[in-house]
């Protein structure tokens, strides 16, 4: 599958195949593109396997537009947006191996529904702790 006609909005990158079908991916997967200017986003080359932004050192394969997780899940989005959260320490808190947790966040592995709910519950617990914190 070869794609073309790239376009962007604040959250997504869009591409079309030769039939005109539009594919979408979240820019959260590509922080360099998310923070890039319109001019930087338009300076890409098309190769045999995908798009390349030399100035941004970013690549997106054509194949990745067909992935089931082109848009991050709720907990993936949380960690992709909140880089200040220490993933290793969070994983310890939940009782998950840190490498496995990173694989969940980056979409290399998919947690079971039960495990995903455990992660979301832990995020909510931390949020409650933040809300209860007061400075005297």
Question: What's the gyration radius in Å?
Answer: 18 Å
* Structure classification: alpha+beta
Number of strands: 6
Portion of residues in beta strands equals 15-25%
Lateral arrangement of strands in the main beta sheet: 1-2-3
Ranges where pLDDT stays below 50 over 5 or more residues in a row are none
> Which bin fits the share of residues in helices?
25-40%
- Cα separation of the termini: 60 Å
Helical run tally: 6
Shape assignment: elongated
Rounded mean pLDDT is 92
Biggest sheet architecture:
3 strands, antiparallel
Element pattern in H and E? EEEHHEEEHHHH
Polypeptide structure, described:
The chain is of the alpha+beta class and 136 residues long. It has six helices and six strands. It has helices at residues 31-34, 38-41, 74-81, 87-94, 98-106, 113-132; strands at 3-8, 12-17, 22-26, 45-46, 50-53, 58-61. The strands form two sheets. It has a three-stranded antiparallel β-sheet, with no helix packed on it. A three-stranded antiparallel β-sheet has the order 4-5-6, with no helix packed on it. A hairpin with a 3-residue loop joins strand 4 and strand 5. Helix 4 (87-94) crosses helix 5. The longest helix has 20 residues, at 113-132. The model has no long low-confidence stretch (mean pLDDT 92).
Considering the chains and any ligands shown, give keywords for the structure.
136 residues; three-stranded antiparallel β-sheet; 20% strand
């Amino acid at each position: 599958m070869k794609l073309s006609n790239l376009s962007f909005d604040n959250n997504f990158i869009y591409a079309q195949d030769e039939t005109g079908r539009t594919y979408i991916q979240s820019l959260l997967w590509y922080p360099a593109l998310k923070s890039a200017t319109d001019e930087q986003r338009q300076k890409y080359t098309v190769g045999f396997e995908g798009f390349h932004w030399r100035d941004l050192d970013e690549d997106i394969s054509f194949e990745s537009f067909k992935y089931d997780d082109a848009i991050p899940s709720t907990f993936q989005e949380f960690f992709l947006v909140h880089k200040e959260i220490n993933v290793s320490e969070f994983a310890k808190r939940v009782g998950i191996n840190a490498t496995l947790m990173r694989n969940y966040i980056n979409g290399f592995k998919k947690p079971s529904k039960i495990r995903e709910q455990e992660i979301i519950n832990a995020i909510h617990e931390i949020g409650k702790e933040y809300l209860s914190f007061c400075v005297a």
